[in-house]
Amino acid sequence: MSTEPALEIAAVRVSGSSGCADFTGTVEVEAGGRIRSFDFSWDCAWRAREERWTDCFGFPDQIRAASEFEWRCFRVWSERGAESREGEMERVGMGA
Prior knowledge:
four-stranded antiparallel beta sheet; 3 helices; 4 strands
């Protein structure tokens, strides 16, 4: 989580679904006794369109975008709101 490098993460839960060029869902992060939720969409076709990269068939060059941009292919990364929910990680199977 490049925007918060000092965040001491205890547990992470990722739920999402993948398509041909994307992986979209939610990340729940336990840090400092709080659970923070983030919506995300990693989309290499979007990044390729943004860069105006096309493959030999004229489609967005997803392979190049994924290779060169890696984690920077996130089209969406937004926090839902931080709430202190003691014990929530145990209820979702992420506790110690």
